[in-house]
Amino acid sequence: MKINNILVSQAFTSSNSPYMELSKNENVKIDFRSFIEVKGASSSDVRKQKINFSDFTVVLFISKKSIDHYFRLAESMRFKVPISMKYVCQTAAIAYYLQKYIVYRKRKIHIGKKSFQDILPYIKKHSKEKFLLPSSDILKPEIPKMLKKLNIFWKRAILYKTTSSDLSDLKNAYYDILVFFSPACIKSLFENFPNFDQNNIKIATFGKNTLDAAYKAGLKIEIKVPTPKYPSMAKALEKYIQEHRYKNYSTVTDLAKFLG
Q1: pLDDT for residue 252 is more than 50
Q2: What percent of the chain has pLDDT over 70?
Q3: Which of 37, 150, 242, 249 might form a disulfide with 255, Cβ 3.0–4.6 angstroms?
Q4: What distances in angstroms separate CA 169 from CA 26, 175, 180, 182, one per listed residue?
Q5: Domain termination residue (choose one: 138, 162, 186)
Q6: Final residue belonging to a domain, choices 162, 195, 224
């Protein structure tokens, strides 16, 4: 099967996206559509969780969205974030984004390498601090488990929620490959199309949790990312498209024409 159309279940972010290069190089049409929407919590929602921002000395940021909603709610609740507040960011990209709201001081920010597990030694070392974990309503279950084992004072604050987008306009659309990056996107697919029949549609997933959700939903997965060889979705898609292009040539003569 020749790959002509791909739907990425995320909003379009940049013209410099590797997907744009993929589209041009492999002559495939790539559409972007967010399968989920983010809705921020209100001040009253935070109070109902019995969260008082002033009770905490360290904020754990595991995403850029958690930064946006923490500072949005701090402002709406008239909480002036003290200069003494410390921050732990799961990745360098998250720490860089934090500079949108604070003046960067190295002594105040600890940065992990990639996973939440990377920041555990720092948390354990500063066990006397009081930690706040801003998050969405969806959180990897292993994160609370890891924090509970450290015997520290910490609380989770749900500052935003993810809901399924209305995808009714895609009812009659057809794509050769659907690309998913979160379990919430898988959930959105079936909430919008309860009778979704995969047929010949290929499914690509990023991350173990997304893969597990796809399997649980009964989907057949063709492309699983990341892998040591293909850490990015764009590269994995490129390889998959190229492999299928070779398969479409039934004779040596056809293949020679393709290879030029």
Answers
A1: no
A2: 93
A3: 249
A4: 27, 14, 18, 21
A5: 162
A6: 162
List CB contacts of 85: < 8 A, sequence separation 6 or more.
Answer: 57, 58, 59, 108
For residue 245, what is the domain's CATH number? 3.40.50.10090
One-letter amino acid for residue 229 of the chain: K
Is there a single domain that holds both residue 131 and residue 154? yes
User: What pTM was computed for the model?
Assistant: 0.73
Give per-residue pLDDT as tens, 121-138. 999 999 999 999 999 998
Structural domain for 9, as ranges:
5-35+165-259
pLDDT band for position 260 (50/70/90)? very low
With 60 as the cut, is the pLDDT of residue 258 above it?
no
Biggest CA-to-CA distance, the chain: 73
pLDDT at 246 (0 to 100): 61
Q: What is the total count of domains within the chain?
A: 2
Whole-angstrom distance, CA of residue 114 vs CA of residue 179:
22
State the number of CA atoms in the 13 A half-sphere of 237 facing the CB: 31
Given the structure tokens 């790539």, which residue do they identify? 30
Average pLDDT over the chain reads 91
Helix (H) or strand (E) holding 236: helix 233-247
Q: For residue 150, what is the DSSP state?
A: T
23 neighbors 29 (Cβ within 8 angstroms)? yes
